[in-house]
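Curious: can you check?
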Amino acid sequence: MIKTELDIAASHIVWDWNGTLLNDNAAVLVAVNDVCAGFGRAALTLDEWRGAYTRPMLKAYERVLARTVSAEEWAEIDRLYHQRYDEQFSTCVLADGVPDLLKVWHASGRTQSLLSMWFHAQLVPAIADFGLSDLFQRIDGLRTEVGGDSKTEHLAHHVEAQGLDPATVVLVGDVVDDALAAAEVGTACILVTTGVMTRAALESTGAPVVDSIAAALDLIPTR
């Protein structure tokens, strides 16, 4: 059964960025296909990439390339992807309802933060450029040189650093890994279908799955 409301009245939302608050699917696909071209693989459609997507990201590319990827190759894939994605970033737009819906949540006296698996040094100025910085009490991105791992440890640190009780927190994201991370850390989770995974994959987690930020917020009780 698909949940129509969370079991908790969350007082804090941890937002994902790419594919959740940011509509960047077109940029992602351009970057993925740049990697494919560099490794002699035909270009993918968005649906094909959604079918292959998983975390750790290394596994997704092994599915796409149909072979094992070495550590050195993974570093090159990660470099190629982010270089092309960064070139495409100016084409990305905010998800429907953002920032207005986030401002409503903020005005209600509840809190929110942002946790992304995009690199921190690029994330923070991007959030500022979109005029969103003041809406979040904390913004965290990756502080490593190579990305693609699970969100679990990052979410645990993000919640702990803010002194939050995980039982009062809901993570809103767009991939299965968000739900897995939330389960490990003890937060609730809502998944949106606006990113790079199929609805069927998202629903397999048992988390509520919706089609928009507005619908995600509608699931959070106000009591």
In short: The mean pLDDT is 92. The longest strand covers residues 111-119. The radius of gyration is 17 Å. The chain is about 45% helix and 15% strand.
